[in-house]
């Protein structure tokens, strides 16, 4: 049996779950998520937990079992706690600002980049404590859908990925950027 799939998903207080056929709707204090899953997976609410079962031991059913359980768990966590990704903007002149709910990025292009958030996604802009505000800033992308939050953060990072010589660009908080020596370092 799948190690992930066999684990029940705990439902915290304040979260309502309804299962109709293969569609799961989860409502919590932060919002509502609804998703349709593969018809072979059996999802049911038992007390204060959700259980996912598979019909057979076939390989594709084993794969769907763990996937379905993880997606249901992400829905429950999203509507109760939410998800967030923190991006660091590193480089002289690289900046981020909020205009209403839109994110305005200055990343060394000839124009400002305006990012419009999808529904249920919010941006927060700040600076890292103890670091020069001119060279390091942070952007926090938060929302209830883990997939959407990750995709928006990846799209922002794609505008200026970190480069290997000086490390300038947009990176995830805690991301390791492998540095290269450059021309002067090769001679030594």
Assembly form of the protein: single chain
Unreliable segments of 5+ consecutive residues: none
Which secondary-structure class do the elements indicate? Answer: alpha+beta
The assigned CATH architecture of the largest domain is Alpha-Beta Complex
H and E string: EEEEEEHEEEEEEHEH
Strand order of the largest sheet: 11-12-7-13
Please indicate the count of domains: 2
> Any idea what the CATH superfamily of the largest domain is called?
Ribosomal protein L6
Largest sheet: 4 strands, antiparallel
Residues in helices, as a percent range: 10-25%
What's the structural blueprint in terms of helices and strands?
Elements: E1 9-10, E2 16-20, E3 23-28, E4 31-36, E5 42-46, E6 49-53, H1 59-80, E7 83-90, E8 95-99, E9 102-106, E10 113-115, E11 121-126, E12 136-143, H2 146-159, E13 169-172, H3 183-187
Antiparallel strand pairs: 1-6, 2-3, 3-4, 5-6, 7-12, 7-13, 8-9, 9-10, 11-12
Describe the protein's architecture and organization.
22% of the residues lie in helices and 36% in strands. The chain is α+β, with helices and mostly antiparallel strands. A hairpin with a 2-residue loop joins strand 8 and strand 9. The relative contact order is 0.14.
